[in-house]
Amino acid sequence: MAAPFKPFTDSPIAYVDNDGNSVAKMKSNFSDDDLKKLYRLMVLCRAIDDRGYIMVRQGRAGFLAQTAGQEAAQIGSAFMLKKKDWVFTTHRELGAALTKGMTPGQLLAHVLGKDLDPSKGRNMPSHYGDGELNIVTPSSVVGNKTPAAVGVGMAAAIRKTGQVAMCYMGDGATSEGDTLAAFNFAGVFNAPTIFALQNNQYAISIDVKHQTKSRTFAEKAAAFGFDGYLVDGNDVIACAEVSKFAIDKARTGGGPTLIEFLTYRYGPHSSADDDSRYRKKEEIELWRNTRDPIMRMRKFLTKQGLLDDTSEAKMQEEIKQAVEEGLTEAEASPLPAPETVFDHAYATLLPHQIDEKIEIFGHA
Amino acid sequence: MPIETATKTMTMVQAVREAMLEEMRLDDTVCILGEDVGPRGGVFLCTEGLHAEFGPDRVIDTPLSEAGILGSALGMAMNGLRPVAEIQFIDFLFPGYDQLYSEIAKMRYRSAGMFKAPMVIRGPYGGGVRGGVYHSQSPEELFAHIPGLKVVIPSNPYDAKGLLIAAIRDEDPVVFLEPKRIYRGVKSEVPGGAYTVPIGKANVVREGSDATLISYGAMLHVALEAADRLAAEGKNVEVIDLRSLVPYDGETILTSVKKTGHAVVVVEAPKLGSFANEISAYIAEKAIEYLEGPIMRVASIDTSVPYNLEKYYLPDADRIVKATKKTLEF
Question: Which CATH architecture has domain B8-190?
Answer without folding.
Answer: 3-Layer(aba) Sandwich (3.40)
